[in-house]
């Protein structure tokens, strides 16, 4: 009876360990981000902010159009960019760029951001999240495959 109880306890412990190990090993299993192209850098002229989309490098074949991710590209001067996540830093609603006022506005709770992505007004606790970017072969590339977040922007 003791052996049966010990064996049952061992099986139960092994079953309980699976999700715990999965959680502990998740960072090691996480896919690395990747550089994806937003197209020719010439499509983003100096002094302008333009909408762009890219295919998330971490996607499933069944994702379809849901794998398309939006961002805002600001060309400060030739060869100098800022690429913002489209999601508001408050609760994630997609922000829109208003060139006339040079502000990003969030439709959900009235959050506003200056053209450099810094917080201007409303409930967002910080500025827009930014993607790392680089120019390669005349194309503007961003490091995607993860949600830009606090870990990279503090
Ligand atoms: S989600 Fe943008 S202000 Fe709340």
SS strand fraction: 35-45%
**Shape category:** elongated
Overall SS class: alpha+beta
Largest sheet: 4 strands, antiparallel
| CATH-defined superfamily of the largest domain | Rieske [2Fe-2S] iron-sulphur domain
Range of helix content? 10-25%
Overall number of structural domains: 2
Spatial strand sequence of the major β-sheet: 2-3-4-9
Bound molecules: FE2/S2 (inorganic) cluster
As a whole number of angstroms, the C-alpha radius of gyration is: 22 Å
Q: Can you count the beta strands? A: 11
Can you describe what's shown?
It is built from two helices and eleven strands. It is an alpha+beta fold and 154 residues long. The protein has two domains: 1-30; 34-153, Rieske Iron-sulfur Protein, CATH 2.102.10. The protein has a four-stranded antiparallel sheet with strand order 2-3-4-9, with no helix packed on it. Strand 7 and strand 8 form a beta hairpin. The longest helix is centred in the N-terminal third of the chain and has 28 residues, at 2-29. The protein is elongated and about 80 Å long. Bound molecules: FE2/S2 (inorganic) cluster. Residues 88, 90-91, 93, 106, 108-109, 111, 122-124 line the site of FE2/S2 (inorganic) cluster.
């Amino acid at each position: 009876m003791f052996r049966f109880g010990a064996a049952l306890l061992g099986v139960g412990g092994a079953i309980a360990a699976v999700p715990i190990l999965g959680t502990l090993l998740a960072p090691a299993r996480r896919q690395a981000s990747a550089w994806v192209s937003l197209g020719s850098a010439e499509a983003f002229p100096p002094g302008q902010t333009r909408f762009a989309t890219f295919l998330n490098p971490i996607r499933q074949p069944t994702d379809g159009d849901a794998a398309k991710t939006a961002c805002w590209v600001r060309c400060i001067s030739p060869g100098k960019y800022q690429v913002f996540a489209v999601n508001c830093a408050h609760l994630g609603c997609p922000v829109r760029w208003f060139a006339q006022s040079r502000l990003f506005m969030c439709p959900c709770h009235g959050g506003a951001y200056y053209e450099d992505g810094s917080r201007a007004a409303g409930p967002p606790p910080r500025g827009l999240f930014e993607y790392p970017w680089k120019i390669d072969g005349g194309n503007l590339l961003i490091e995607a495959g993860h949600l830009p977040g606090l870990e990279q922007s503090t």
